[in-house]
Amino acid sequence: MSFIDVISSFWAPLTGFIALIVWLVRLEGKVNFNEKTLQTHQNWQQLMDEKHQNLDSKIVNELSEIKQSLARLEGKLGVDLHK
User: What is the rounded distance in angstroms from the CA atom of residue 4 to the CA atom of residue 8?
Assistant: First the structure.
């Protein structure tokens, strides 16, 4: 049996096997890309969480300053808004 006869009788399984190998290599590439992207998004989320916490504490500080200013104004005006 010559090499051409072997190829002609097994061309379909060989083609399928090569296609399977190509598909698996592409799949691995996509998985690696998704892992890198996931890590980038996790880092970005952590950074945004930190910024959100910092902003939250700044807002609380500003609100307490506003509350103190209102209390001083109420005291100077003699107004009791808590009736």
Answer: 6
